[in-house]
Design brief:
This protein is an alpha+beta fold. The chain contains two helices and three strands, in the order H-E-E-E-H. Strands 1-2-3 form a three-stranded antiparallel sheet. Keywords: Membrane, Transmembrane, Transmembrane helix.
């Protein structure tokens, strides 16, 4: 395998992992507010987690490559890190 194939395989694995993470987080958490803003190739995602009607976590991530799925997964990850049950 050359370096380019290895890099592509790594990108596929990372995207697959992020997709699974996003699916798990969106099912397991009560993320009521999700704001996605895309201007040209800059995508900003803000996620708010509520528990019993109270804001318990928030996450914002900006990606300048236009990859909104990655930005959304990272915003969920940050929201989980700041989540205070």
């Amino acid at each position: 395998m050359n370096g380019r194939t290895t890099q592509r395989n790594s990108e596929i694995f990372i995207n697959f992992f992020l997709s699974l993470t996003f699916l798990f987080l969106s099912v397991s958490l009560n993320a009521k507010n999700k704001i996605i803003t895309k201007v040209f190739d800059v995508c900003t995602v803000t996620v708010e987690i509520y528990e019993n009607g109270e804001l318990t976590g928030t996450g914002t991530y900006t990606d300048n490559t236009g990859d909104c799925e990655y930005a959304e997964a990272m915003a969920y990850f940050i929201a989980v890190l700041t989540h205070a049950p």
